[in-house]
Amino acid sequence: MDVVTGIIIVMVTVVVVVSTAIVVGLVVLFQRRGNPGLTVRAPGSRTGAVTITSNLTALRQRAGTLLVTLDDAIRDADDELGFALAQFGPVATKPYADAVATARGYIAQAFRLSQALDDVETDTPREQREWTLQIIALCEKAESQLATQDRAFQSLRSSEVNAAGTLAEVRASVAAVHMRREGAREKLKRLTKDFVPDTVAAVVGNVDEAEKRLAAASTIADAAAPAIVGSGVNSVSTDLHRATQLAREAEQLLDAVDRTVENLDTASGAVATLRAATRETLVEAAHQRDAAPDPASAAAILSAIAEVDATLVDAPGRANPVADLDRIGDAVAGLDLALAGARNQTERLEHARTAYDGTRVSAKSQIAVARDLIGQKGASAAARTRLAEAERGAGARHQGGKDHRCARRGKPAEERGTELDATELLLFARDDVVANGVAR
After folding, report:
1. Element holding 111 (H helix, E strand)
2. Calpha distance 47→54 (Å, rounded)
3. Is residue 32 over pLDDT 70?
């Protein structure tokens, strides 16, 4: 009887323990399913033992912060890579160049996910968490690779013995950029004289900013010179590196002026080309108006011709070729609709190609202005995401635009997508820099 009683007691005990474990497991499972938060590693935790529970909003904020930090880190890494190439050569810098390229691929994926989170309203909270965590993982992985290579180069640079040669290179760079100042200032004078302020606002202060950086680079180089010895390891490598960065930043500021001149001159040429092609179109439109099958069609063509005529008149004062391309393009799109019944498919395709070229130049100019604005002033993750999406979209449309599928579908207005994206990007970037930008 004692043995039987013992067996019964053991069996009851096992049943109670198993039932308790099942109940506890179910409670934990339901609590985790019902909790919108996720457990992630705490900032600064090296062991992974410290964790925090973060809701979706906190995760999105962290993802945004990481995007901004990584985007700036990649920009700085590009500058660092140029300096490293000059100092150590392409063989020693290959791992760093590979890391920068990999990080750029990661942030491109992260920006696409961020754009998807902004665009899609019907995704579930679980999907939002998954995409946000993917963004965080991509950014952290890229930052880790960049940090590893950066430490390697810092170690290499600390043992650099060619400080005297580096000082000479810094002074040569400063002198070379210094010689470009007056030319850039003259270009700015022409830009501000010939074009409306909005078209040159992003670079109007670049020459003055370049002079400040050149002065700072010269000051650092002069202060480091007495500490340089003819042989052995010097302790001024960090200072000379900073001086080189300042000289490079000054060069980039003047390069932005040159790009703006090129873009606006290209846009002005595109306006002239589009006007000439449009005037030829007006001659055809007049014939189509006279041959219209009914009074309503003739009236529609006549109204569209009048609108196009108005856009071909040079506005008084300073020029705005980007806006001119937009206005002429819009008017020509209206004329296309009016002439749709009278123009055969081949003629419509040729006209779409001319209009598309003007639109693409306009978009390229506005994207370049936004890129310079964000690069010089800093911006939020949202602005950087829009820039990445606009650059990717413009590139895709350029490849797809070669066959002018919009014209084949009979929807010339769709060719305006690139310009509309670029215009929205530029407006958003300007507002974002005013609200969030910090001078770099």
Report:
1. helix 90-119
2. 19
3. no
CA–CA dist 9, 143 (Å, integer): 59
Cα gap 361→324, rounded to integer Å: 12
Nearest to 204 by CA among 372, 360, 85, 74: 372
**Which token pair is 440?**
């770099």
Note the pLDDT of residue 391.
77
| Residue that has been written with the tokens 């990007």 in this structure | 425
Give the residue-averaged pLDDT of 382-405: 66
Interatomic CA distance for residues 293 and 311, integer angstroms? 27
Judge contact between 305 and 335, C-beta under 8 A.
yes
| Higher pLDDT among residues 187 and 401, named by residue | 187
How far is the C-alpha of 63 from the C-alpha of 130, rounded, in Å? 12
344: amino acid identity, one letter: N
Distance in angstroms (rounded) separating the CA atoms of residues 156 and 89: 13
pLDDT reading at 200 higher than 80? yes
Residue 413 has a pLDDT of 43
Which residue is associated with the tokens 């002074």?
Answer: 171
Distance CA(201)–CA(205), nearest Å, equals 8
Percentage of the residues of the chain whose pLDDT score is greater than 90: 15
DSSP-assigned letters across all residues of 115-182: HHHHH-SS--HHHHHHHHHHHHHHHHHHHHHHHHHHHHHHHHHHT---HHHHHHHHHHHHHHHHHHHH
Closest CA to 107 of 129, 150, 137: 137
Q: Integer distance in angstroms from the first to the last C-alpha of the chain?
A: 87
Q: What's the mean pLDDT when you consider all of the chain?
A: 75
The rounded distance, in Å, linking the Cα atoms of 365 and 33 is 49
- Look at strands 51-54 and 38-41 and give their pairing: antiparallel
